[in-house]
Amino acid sequence: MDPIERAATVRYTDAAGLPDALRGADALFVYDFLSRAVPDAWHAADRLRWLHIASAGVDPVLFPELRDSDVVLTNSRGVFDSAIAEYVLGVVIAFAKDFAGSLRLQQRSTWRHRETERVAGTSALVVGTGPIGRAIATLLRAVGMRVAGAGRRARDGDPDFGTVVSSDELSRHLPDFDVVVAVAPLTEQTKGLFDAEAFAAMRPGARFVNVGRGELVVTGDLVSALRSGQLSGAALDVFEQEPLPQDSPLWTMENVLLSAHMSGDVVGWRNALVEVFADNFARWRDGGPLRNVVDKRLGYVPSTA
């Protein structure tokens, strides 16, 4: 932040002090990307022209007043792509090779020979065709998986996915894949996208990975699909309620891999988030075009941006 402090008056604040800090401010950097403080403090934004959030998802700050205002919204797209793709590849391999089962046997000092699965030749549907989804597709293809995407518009010949199916027809395509990866942004259209109907449509024994937003999934329906055997496993990095409540059945299910909303948080990620803001600040100060401008009607940065 040093270069920014030399060029502007910077006020650091927590959620409680945000209204006072916002008064007279031209720009707001929401570094705590999980904070829900901005809507309550919006009445004090008397001069704001630009809001930047330190995440790829913008749902914590995309409230009606901001959407209807002239304030430009940018995000930190590009920081997490490779790291999240590596996470997804890791859990796909972990399930196929039953690493969790091996660890449980090791902890009991039990020698038990088993057969595991090949990853090559299986199929994955990546629901969300932004930069993170594209990075996931690239790595899954590299290990021999057949990959397709699901997005707003169906098309063929996509450079990363080959085929992209329409999210509006998701249930029709879900039975064709062994692994379904959720990485879509959270919008009114995607909230609760993976519910009982979607899980019932999946191939029996399919696996589900969520690295998008917890609210994409109806948690109770996911638990039921795992208990019934409709799904053979799930890897979850995000949840409807975070931290995950201690009484959630997901904690103790042997066919579930959990992590604490950290799939993209590799060493250096915090500095990288500030660097994205610093680069955009220099552009903004000089009157240049900003990176990662969010279409506030869509809720994400369009692929053409």
Please write out the topology.
Layout: H1 2-7, H2 18-22, E1 27-30, H3 37-41, E2 50-53, H4 64-67, E3 72-74, H5 81-96, H6 99-107, E4 123-127, H7 131-142, E5 146-151, E6 155-158, E7 162-166, H8 170-173, E8 179-182, H9 196-201, E9 206-210, H10 219-228, E10 231-236, E11 256-258, H11 269-285
Question: What would the keywords be for this entry?
Answer:
305 residues, 31% helix, Rossmann fold, 11 strands, single chain, 2 domains, 11 helices, eight-stranded mixed beta sheet, alpha/beta, three-stranded parallel beta sheet
Terminal CA distance reads 26 Å
Strand content: 15-25%
Mean pLDDT: 97
The appropriate CATH architecture of the largest domain is 3-Layer(aba) Sandwich
Major beta sheet summary = 8 strands, mixed
Domain D-isomer specific 2-hydroxyacid dehydrogenase catalytic: 18-294
Domain D-isomer specific 2-hydroxyacid dehydrogenase NAD-binding: 90-263
InterPro entries: D-isomer_2_OHA_DH_cat_dom, D-isomer_DH_CS, D-isomer_DH_NAD-bd, NAD(P)-bd_dom_sf
Keywords: NAD, Oxidoreductase
Task: Explain how this protein is built.
This protein has 305 residues and is an alpha/beta fold. 31% of the residues lie in helices and 16% in strands. The chain is built from 11 helices and 11 strands. The chain has helices spanning 2-7, 18-22, 37-41, 64-67, 81-96, 99-107, 131-142, 170-173, 196-201, 219-228, 269-285; strands at 27-30, 50-53, 72-74, 123-127, 146-151, 155-158, 162-166, 179-182, 206-210, 231-236, 256-258. An 8-stranded mixed sheet has the order 6-7-5-4-8-9-10-11. The protein is globular and about 65 Å long. Pfam families: 2-Hacid_dh (PF00389), 2-Hacid_dh_C (PF02826). Belongs to the D-isomer specific 2-hydroxyacid dehydrogenase family. Keywords: NAD, Oxidoreductase.
